[in-house]
Write a structure and sequence with these properties.
Blueprint lengths: L6 H10 L3 E7 L5 E6 L2 H4 L2 H16 L2 H4 L5 E5 L5 H11 L3 E7 L6 E3 L10 E9 L3 H12 L3 E10 L13 E6 L4 E2 L6 H4 L5 E2 L3
Parallel strand pairs: 1-10, 3-4, 3-6, 6-7, 7-8
Antiparallel strand pairs: 1-2, 2-9, 4-5
Helix pairs in contact: 3-5
This protein binds zinc ion (ZN).
């Protein structure tokens, strides 16, 4: 693979590992799509995780503010799917530390492991395997900022926006590939359902 993996390289890895599937899927919120992406299926292969996170680290290094903050930088993930990205980036960037947060209950407030707490002024890169709705990243950003931490940017392997994706404004966003699936709010508006095809239900 190249110095910086290109979109087609990333998509090839995702398809070859089964992380990216084409079909007809129904999500827990009732929406339907013609694609289903589970990046952990690719990242479970250490060599893929390494190549992708090293590639992502090279994008981050182009940002002067991030590059000059590396020795103090924390890499923080809002979900377990982002852990291989957080640790891969931390190693590639020689950043200070990596950690994650968890929701107290599904959809509930974020909390950190006992004795882990963001510090006022702590510089943070928020990372995940994917930016989709952006809800987890947005909620964790708010939580981190409530501690006085400073979020410098977002980094994900795949950017898969929908019309409802959270708007992060001018916050820098780094990703290796952008995927555009077709989304339908519900079965009634789904063109795949209209064609008589039954969806596969997925739990996340
Ligand atoms: Zn459908």
């Amino acid at each position: 693979m190249k110095f910086l993996p290109e979109q087609e390289d990333v998509v090839t890895v995702l398809r070859d590992t089964g992380a990216l599937r084409t079909g007809h899927f129904e999500f827990p919120n009732g929406s339907h799509s013609d694609e289903y992406l589970q990046v952990p299926l690719a990242l479970q292969h250490y060599e893929h995780a390494k190549v992708l996170t090293v590639g992502l680290s090279r994008l981050l290094r182009r940002n002067t503010e991030i590059r000059t903050s590396l020795k103090d930088l924390s890499i923080v993930s809002p979900a377990t799917g982002g852990l291989p990205v957080a640790y891969g980036l931390c190693e590639a960037l020689q950043a200070k530390k990596a950690y994650w947060a968890e929701r107290e209950t599904p959809g509930g407030a974020y909390r950190f492991r006992p004795f882990i707490a963001p510090q006022p002024g702590e510089q943070i890169m928020l990372v995940d395997d994917i930016l989709h709705s952006g809800r987890n990243l947005a909620d964790l950003k708010t939580t981190l900022e409530s501690y006085g931490a400073i979020v410098l940017g977002l980094a994900v392997i795949v950017y898969q926006p929908t019309p409802k994706t959270h708007d992060f404004g001018s916050l820098p966003l780094y990703y290796l590939a952008e995927l555009d699936a077709s989304y339908y709010a519900d079965a009634g508006s789904c063109q795949l359902c209209a064609g008589g095809d039954a969806p596969t239900k997925v739990w996340v």
